[in-house]
Hints:
Elements: H1 14-19, E1 25-30, H2 35-47, E2 52-56, H3 65-71, H4 74-77, E3 79-83, H5 86-95, E4 98-103, E5 110-111, E6 122-128, H6 136-141, E7 144-147, H7 159-174
Parallel strand pairs: 1-2, 1-6, 2-3, 4-6, 4-7, 5-7
Amino acid sequence: MRKLKNSELSRLSVEEYKESKKTGIIIVLDNVRSLHNIGSVFRTADAFLSEAVYLCGITATPPNKEIHKTALGAQDSVDWKYFEKSIDAITELRNNGYKIISVEQVDKSISLQNFKLSENEKYAVVFGHEVKGVEDEIVSISDFCVEIPQLGTKHSLNISVSVGVVLWEFARKLF
């Protein structure tokens, strides 16, 4: 075996990415404070052909050199939009036919592996603040709350890891 060179990976150009058919998934970052997490989310969004990333509240926006460090240019390929309040993003998404899914530990959460997706639906997946999680107001109006099963002593994963896990599982089920 040998590692492939970048030239052998058949990756899309930024222009090809923008023109390609997307998954129908928008990632919503609800008051995410870490610039490295934000950049990592852009990179993961690019990897899974996400429609866009919605940045809300205290979540920083491009251009930003710290976001660029982990996004590695994905902030240029993935569309993004900023909202001062997360509720405004959710309202817009719902009005545009998106199902709202918060990734959060709640009393009626659905374990990620048991969550059913439909190819005919559009999804907005909300990830919250690194310590406080998804705002209660957003959780209460979500169509679903999904929880990532965890077996160890910690009660949460880093947000960038959570985005990767959820998008991988959604892609696995949809494609």
